[in-house]
């Protein structure tokens, strides 16, 4: 294992120190318990939007802290959910009197820790759980679908709503609307190496890809021969389109996400193919996002997310945002 | 023979040592069907438990378990933090302010721990989770009679069998459930750690 780290045990703390150094105008990083909050303290009368999860998905979530998006992010160890005391601390530091909305990705650990935090917090707290990954069969017999790329879109849109003054119930309702309208799926060309493990999380031959991966190096549902970019895009887009289902005439946001190790050259290539496939179906891509925004360490691969838009979502997507990873309109 | 706060502290220290010893094994089990963090998370949690016990050893068995609970909740993360945290918290409540434990109290604490884990994680026997190790342990402890050591030993044996029983199971809870049929053929790491912890507690009680 070759990585730019000093000590596998302190990877997250060391990275947070660097993050604070890089963005002193946007963020304040509190080391114990680890919480990344928006610079300038709680915003009075604004709903605090708080998320968190295991580290290794950067820029998610800390890179989305700032005006128009998250008030706080709780980084857990690599691929491990944060503890409930981190979340309780984040709520206390950012509640400006209008309560807090917790944005939770659907993983057992995340759900349990955020649930305990919501019980322990002294503020008014609501939670939403995002589960946009169509690769997982949603049934009584699994932990349910995972929260993946749709989380980035949710945090941007609901963050903008909170910034314009929507109350807690309105932010929660909007979040649920986004969750109901977004679907995602990913594939991996290589595995990733968790620093404290030191070996690849799963094995993949040179000519194979893993379709339906999550963002934690957990294997997907099937290994298949890696084909052309067009085949890869179809392998992700078809299940997404069939699931909601999306239909001709829909207006969508298309998010082409890199898993950490795939160059932008390839992401743009894939994005172009996806736009064409959607146009062929009569689906209008009105907004787009391309780049590595929810990653899995150094994994090569990509995910696609499709969000069915309405006028309000478009307005909130376009609203100003000023965070380390997303910035426009400012 | 009774079992005082000091004995419980000794047992928890032994459990921490076992977690440290089996860290790599738990990582490997979790790597096969999960996300390779269970061994590391448990090691981090129990290391923190030991340093808090060093700082101020509690004076009743219940307080020892409560310290374990709050430390695991604030240091482990993942699903194991809240699940083990809830288990130790409920076990602590079940002990009340007893200065010494007998086998009936131990059995009651184990039952409370299991109830807590089920309430928090909503798993049932057969889902390939720690419930598959803890449930037979509780049953064994309830029907054991004699010393605390004998009760814990019966529980530990049953938990080990329960952990082995998870190997052919298809996971229905937690991250392993995403694998569907591919989760069969591997022991559940949470069931394994439950069995390891109970074995360590039993061995310490036997030596006391």
TrEMBL record, chain A:
Coiled coil: none annotated. SUPFAM superfamilies: DAK1/DegV-like. The keyword Lipid metabolism does not apply. NCBIfam families: dhaK1. Keywords: ATP-binding, Kinase, Nucleotide-binding, Transferase. This is Dihydroxyacetone kinase, N-terminal domain. It comes from Lentzea albida. PANTHER family: TRIOKINASE/FMN CYCLASE (PTHR28629), TRIOKINASE_FMN CYCLASE (PTHR28629:SF4). GO terms for biological process: glycerol catabolic process. It comes from the Bacteria. InterPro entries: DhaK_1, DhaK_dom, Dihydroxyacetone_Kinase. GO terms for molecular function: ATP binding; glycerone kinase activity.
TrEMBL record, chain B:
GO terms for biological process: glycerol catabolic process. InterPro entries: DhaK_L_YcgS, DhaL_dom, DhaL_dom_sf, Dihydroxyacetone_Kinase. Residues 6-203 form the DhaL domain. One of its GO terms (molecular function) is glycerone kinase activity. GO terms for cellular component: cytosol. Keywords: Kinase, Transferase. NCBIfam families: dha_L_ycgS. This is Dihydroxyacetone kinase, C-terminal domain. The lineage of its organism: Bacteria, Bacillati, Actinomycetota, Actinomycetes, Pseudonocardiales.
């Amino acid at each position: 294992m070759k990585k730019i780290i000093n000590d596998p045990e302190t990877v997250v703390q060391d990275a947070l120190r660097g993050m604070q150094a890089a963005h002193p105008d946007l963020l304040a990083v509190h080391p114990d318990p680890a919480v990344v909050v928006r610079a300038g303290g709680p915003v009075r009368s604004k709903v605090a939007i708080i998320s968190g999860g295991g580290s290794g998905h950067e820029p998610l979530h800390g890179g989305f802290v700032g005006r128009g998006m998250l008030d706080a992010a709780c980084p857990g160890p690599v691929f491990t959910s944060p503890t409930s005391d981190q979340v309780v601390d984040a709520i206390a530091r950012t509640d400006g009197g209008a309560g807090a909305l917790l944005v939770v990705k659907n993983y057992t650990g995340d759900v349990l820790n955020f649930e305990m935090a919501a019980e322990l917090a002294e503020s008014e707290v609501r939670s939403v759980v995002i589960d946009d990954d169509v690769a997982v069969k949603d049934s009584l017999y699994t932990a349910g679908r995972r929260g993946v790329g749709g989380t980035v879109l949710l945090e941007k849109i609901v963050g903008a709503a909170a910034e314009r003054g929507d109350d807690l119930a309105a932010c929660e309702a909007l979040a649920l609307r986004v969750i109901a309208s977004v679907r995602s799926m990913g594939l991996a060309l290589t595995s990733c190496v968790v620093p404290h493990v030191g070996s690849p999380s799963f094995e993949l031959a040179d000519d194979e890809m893993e379709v339906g991966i999550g963002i934690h190096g957990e294997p997907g549902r099937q290994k298949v021969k890696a084909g052309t970019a067009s085949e890869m895009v179809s392998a992700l887009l078809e299940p997404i389109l069939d699931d909601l289902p999306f239909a001709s005439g829909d207006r969508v946001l298309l998010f082409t996400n890199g898993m950490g190790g795939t160059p932008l050259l390839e992401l743009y290539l894939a994005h172009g193919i996806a736009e064409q496939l959607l146009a062929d179906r009569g689906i209008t891509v009105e907004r787009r996002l391309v780049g590595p925004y929810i990653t899995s360490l150094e994994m090569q691969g990509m995910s696609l997310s499709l969000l069915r838009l309405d006028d309000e979502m478009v307005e909130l997507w376009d609203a100003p945002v000023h965070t380390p990873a997303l910035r426009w309109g400012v | 023979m009774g079992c005082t706060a000091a004995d419980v502290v000794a047992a928890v220290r032994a459990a921490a040592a076992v977690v440290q010893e089996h860290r790599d094994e738990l990582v490997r089990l979790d790597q096969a069907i999960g996300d390779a963090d269970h061994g590391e998370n448990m090691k981090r949690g129990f290391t923190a438990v030991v340093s808090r016990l060093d700082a101020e050893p509690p004076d009743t068995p219940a307080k020892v378990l409560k310290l374990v609970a709050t430390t695991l909740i604030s240091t482990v993360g993942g699903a194991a933090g809240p699940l083990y945290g809830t288990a130790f918290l409920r076990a602590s409540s079940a002990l009340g302010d007893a200065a010494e434990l007998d086998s009936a109290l131990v059995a009651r604490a184990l039952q409370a721990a299991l109830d807590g884990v089920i309430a928090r994680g909503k798993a049932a026997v057969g889902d390939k989770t720690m419930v598959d190790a803890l449930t037979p342990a509780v049953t064994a402890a309830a029907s054991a009679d004699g010393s605390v050591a004998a009760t814990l030993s019966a529980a530990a044996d049953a938990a080990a069998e329960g952990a082995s029983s998870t190997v052919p199971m298809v996971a229905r809870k937690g991250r392993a459930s995403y694998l569907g049929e591919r989760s069969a053929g591997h022991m559940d790491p949470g069931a394994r750690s439950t069995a390891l912890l109970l074995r360590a507690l039993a061995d310490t009680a036997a030596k006391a």
